[in-house]
Amino acid sequence: MQTVSSTPAVYRPRPRPDASRVLVCLSFCGGGTAPFRRWADVVPDDVELALICYPGRESRFGTPFARDWIALRDDVVGAVRGLAGRPYTLFGHSMGSWLAFETAAQLERLGVARPSALVVSGGVAPHRRGVRGSHIPRTADSDDVLVDWMRTFGQMSAVVANEPELRAIAVELLRADLAVSESYRFTEGTRATVPLRVLYGSGDTEPFDEVERDWKSLADGGFEAFELPGGHFYETDVWAGLPRWCTEPAPGAGRP
């Protein structure tokens, strides 16, 4: 049975309190926990899947959206701190990749247990966001532009697009997350001090070799990067299989 944990920001599709390690997932701009829930069926038996629900959606629908980047990061940090009793890997996709990077850095500043490894997916390196990522929409864009973007990148189904109320909710959510993302400012000197693995789609919007180079420049621990089939959300079977890239040996120990 699926349950919401006592910490509202953490959703465990299949609770495994005796698991020896945890995979913590941070979603993309405008996203929630739903795209990761089926991963509970494929993670190893010794792994518990913990999905972070940002404010303003799903079980936290009544919680106001984060005001800015720092507020969202601190919300995530608070949720992850409650999971730090076991070794854990921190995974983030797209906007979640920057949140994972910044969350790990903030946990280190606070002296809280850092993740065992950091896996970032579908995102340019945070210090290059002002140079790359021109395909990302802006909060000033019209609803139609945002809907077109979500449809193009596979973030909105035809069912949602054709249902006015659901479409409006999706647009509001995306616009709120875009505002948070636009307020993000990379702090020079911030580093990934745990092993870092970068995943990126072969058909995504930036050249893979440049994305790899940019992330590597922020890595003080082990590092490796892999180009996977598909676009921003990869091919369907690739997305379904992403947990193995998060639960296999850390960077430097070989490809899953």
What is this entry, summarized?
This protein has 256 residues and is of the alpha/beta class. It has a single domain, classed as Alpha/Beta hydrolase fold, catalytic domain (Rossmann fold, 3-Layer(aba) Sandwich).
Number of domains: 1
Provide the spatial order of strands within the biggest beta sheet.
Answer: 1-2-4-3-5-6-7-8
Radius of gyration: 17 Å
- CATH topology label: Rossmann fold
Mean pLDDT, all residues = 90
CATH architecture: 3-Layer(aba) Sandwich
Instruction: Report the strand count.
Output: 8
The percent range for helix content is: 25-40%
Runs with pLDDT <50, length 5+? 1-7
Secondary-structure element order, N to C: EEEEHEHEHHHEHEHH
- Distance between the amino and carboxyl termini: 30 Å
Strand content: 15-25%
Overview of the molecule:
The protein has a single domain (3-132, 186-247), classed as 3-Layer(aba) Sandwich (Rossmann fold). The protein has 256 residues and is α/β, with parallel strands linked by helices. The protein has eight helices and eight strands. 32% of the residues lie in helices and 16% in strands. It starts with a strand and ends in a 9-residue tail after the last helix. Helix 1 packs across helix 2 (95-110). An eight-stranded mixed beta sheet has the order 1-2-4-3-5-6-7-8. The longest helix has 19 residues, at 164-182.
